[in-house]
Amino acid sequence: MTARRKAFVLFELMNAMLYTAQAAKARGFDIVALNHKGFTDSGPFAVPAGLVDERVEMPSWADTAAVEPLIKSVADRYDVVGTHSMFEPTLPHQAALRELVGLPTTSPSDLTGILDKAQVRARLYEAGLTALRSATLSEALRWEEWLFDRPAVLKPANGTGSALCFDVATLEELRSAAEAVRSTEVVNPMMRDYIHAHGGFVLEEKAEGELLSVESMVHRGEVGFVALTGRYQLASDPIVEQGMQTPYHHPRQEALVDTARAVHECLGFHHGGTHLEFMVADDGTAEMIDFNPRPAGFASPVSLSEAYGVDYSEVLVDVGCGERPDLSFTTGPHRFAVEMVVLPAPGTNEFRDIAFPVDSIVPRPTKSPGERLSGRADQLDAVGMFIVTGPTAAEAHRRGLAARREVTVNGEPLGDNPNNRVTHSPYIGRDLTVPPPTDETTGVAAAEPLNESRSTAS
Length: 458
Prior knowledge:
10-stranded antiparallel β-sheet; globular
């Protein structure tokens, strides 16, 4: 009997996952891609001929009955040594394959619960890890008066980014948002299928403060800290993310990492990369507002590689193969990377072309020529992304802001139009003293209290 070939399986291969596939290929593994969409054929993330040994056509990630036999077929035909995924609808299927072949994983049932924002908030509230209350949309629409003590955010129970997120503070605003939910079209078809397949919406009390993220790698239940990332947001609508700085030094890093570790334990996340979004208030109170059970999106692996001078895709392959990742690079010297997301000018209903500054790293359009846009300031209307770096946080920040003004969309520079004005986390662009590491495995660091400042528009 012929021995099965060792395979590394990627779920919906796209964007910077390309580098993970190449790193796995360099280790001698066959590359198997389970994809609903076609491969990117242009730009920095174009999939070269010969990289993928087998592509399995996936009819719809929302159709579990159709996906399950395809997953089992891969497990039967290959010795699956590792996997990688960055797209929420694929994550339970990745967990099912890992469980099937004996790789460490968060169980499919636990992962499905983690992807449900209503379940997550309820479990954190019960464990005393959040002060934010929540209700399903159907429950809230039966209220006779506003029952929360603060404004709230209406969002899909299963969703990503700012798609279909609405700030509300009264029953009238809630009903208007519920009507908008029914009439708003989600342009991305895979995200539309994911949101509508689950159908539910959750109303969560709104946390105030600055938005930042804790990036971690979890190995068989042991949480390893990678970095904090600070955020750029649209000035006119801070729900819409416009970029991030990596790494992001913050005076409350140690407390944030401790909270992130407690959240992982509470929710039962066992293995893989995670991207936890927090709101940090002026008094230091931190609320976890989104648990993403996969590594950070955008081109974060590229940002981490550029900032720390390592090939971060090797870390992703190690974790994908169930091996303990070496995170010692996080405590060494580094640069700063700023990844920017750009929107078209207000009222733009069609994408034709985009041009980036010449020194941009992995610049790429996120829409195809002729693709229709909503005309709103919506995160799903983003038309391009790019990275710049600098030896200091201040220089990386300056370069990022200058570069986004130079981007041209449909032949016109974005300049200072309302959709190109951003606000940002208070310590972005500030060169704070790097806290000394206290644990060489996690990279967790202590920090002296600093005077805080509020986010500023740029």
